[in-house]
Amino acid sequence: MKKVLLSLLLLGVMFSCGKKEESSMENSGTVNAESESSTPKFKDPDVQKLAEAYTELSKEYDNMTPEKAGELSQKFQELSSKSSEITQKLSSDPKEAEKFANYMTEIGKEIQSKMIK
Predict the structure, then answer these.
(1) What is the DSSP annotation of 20-88?
(2) 54-93 pLDDT tens trace
(3) Are 91 and 101 in contact (CB under 8 A)?
(4) What is the distance between the alpha carbons of residues 3 and 24, in angstroms, rounded to a whole number?
(5) What pLDDT was estimated at residue 106?
(6) Alpha-carbon distance 58 to 107, whole Å?
(7) Is 36 left (phi over 0), alpha (psi -120 to 50) or beta?
(8) How many C-beta neighbours within 10 Å does residue 103 have?
(9) Which residues lie closer than 8 Å to 85 by C-beta, 6 or more apart?
(10) 91: which of 5, 48, 57, 101 lies 20 to 30 Å off by Cα?
(11) How many whole angstroms separate alpha carbon 53 and alpha carbon 45?
(12) CA nearest to 110, candidates 47, 31, 42
């Protein structure tokens, strides 16, 4: 559970810092299929819905423009608040909580790598 909260906190800080970088538009259309994470299957439908929302957000970062950066940051913050609720919900099922924490770590790294490009 600590891993999930720390991951969420780290991702929240990264997106809320407001740092704007110049990006090259030449590589924005390419997608690396190997880096795309597959959404794991969770027992709880709310957890599954949130995981799919994070996967969709990651895909949106592939086509991020400076104009869309604020919108994506806001979406990320909304999902982060929902994920803290889900973390509490998963406290009764350690296996699902660990799977969710691992997924959040993976998707966080993926989104972070897309922000750098």
Answers:
(1) -----STTTT---TTTPPPPPP-SSHHHHHHHHHHHHHHHHHHT--HHHHHHHHHHHHHHHHHHHHHHH
(2) 999 989 888 888 888 888 888 988 998 898 889 888 889 9
(3) no
(4) 33
(5) 93
(6) 7
(7) beta
(8) 22
(9) none
(10) 57
(11) 12
(12) 31
Say whether pTM exceeds 0.85. Answer: no
Cα pseudo-dihedral 8, 38, 33, 70, rounded to 10: -30
CB 35 within 8 A of CB 43: no
The pair of structure tokens assigned to 49 is 């819905």
Q: Output the six-digit token pair for 82.
A: 């929902």
* Residue type present at position 63: N
Cα 44 to chain centroid distance, Å, stands at 19
